[in-house]
UniProtKB/TrEMBL annotation:
PROSITE patterns: PROKAR_LIPOPROTEIN. This is Slp family lipoprotein. Transmembrane segments: none annotated. It comes from Candidatus Thiodiazotropha lotti. The lineage of its organism: Bacteria, Pseudomonadati, Pseudomonadota, Gammaproteobacteria, Chromatiales. Keywords: Lipoprotein. InterPro entries: OMP_Slp (IPR004658). It comes from the Bacteria. One of its GO terms (cellular component) is outer membrane. Pfam families: Slp. Coiled coil: none annotated.
């Protein structure tokens, strides 16, 4: 290979590496389960579903008990990755139970979560002054989504153009963009 071909191959390799690293994410890995039932569809008169379910939403409140923790969640439909789509209408509320202690600071009100598990009970409760029926999910997994970043008014994309002689008679031109 000529020197120019080697340099081109190196540049292409570096660009490929940069794009593959940029594609990495800190999103949780969600164990997918049945999404055909929503929390609103489970009530005190229905038989409890036996299959594993996957629901998600935003944390309303957390309660730590002697042996377990309970997280009240306002549920939303999930996207293909299992992330709650909070711009959609709510599909009900449910209580996610997890053995042991969950740190309330890690599960603050408004934080997005996805839960996978089985419905173990239905519990009557209140939302404000209204009576409400909460499905109680015994969780195999309770995954936190990364905190939402504040959106800026302007996109953070930059574009540049440059030219240089590089000290030789051939010169060069470059185009670049960044995030």
């Amino acid at each position: 290979m000529h020197q120019a071909q080697k340099e081109n191959a190196l540049v292409i390799g570096l660009i490929t590496l940069l794009f593959s690293v940029a594609g990495c994410s800190s999103n949780p890995v969600i164990e997918h389960a049945d999404r055909s039932l929503s929390p609103k569809q489970i009530d005190t008169d229905s038989t409890l579903p036996e299959q594993k379910l996957e629901w998600g939403g935003i944390v309303i409140a957390i309660t730590n008990l002697a042996e377990s923790s309970e997280v009240e969640i306002l549920a939303y439909p999930l996207d293909e990755r299992g992330k709650p789509m909070t711009e959609s209408s709510s599909i009900g509320r449910f209580i996610a139970t997890q053995p042991g202690y969950l740190e309330a600071g890690d599960y603050p009100s408004g934080r997005m979560v996805t839960a996978t598990g089985q419905i173990s009970a239905v519990r009557s409760g209140r939302v404000g002054e209204a009576e409400y029926v909460f499905p109680v999910m015994h969780c195999d997994q309770l995954a936190l989504w990364p905190k939402q970043q504040e959106s800026r008014a302007k996109p953070r994309i930059r574009f540049g153009f440059g030219a240089s002689s590089g000290g030789s008679s051939y010169g060069s031109i470059g185009i670049g963009f960044g995030f």
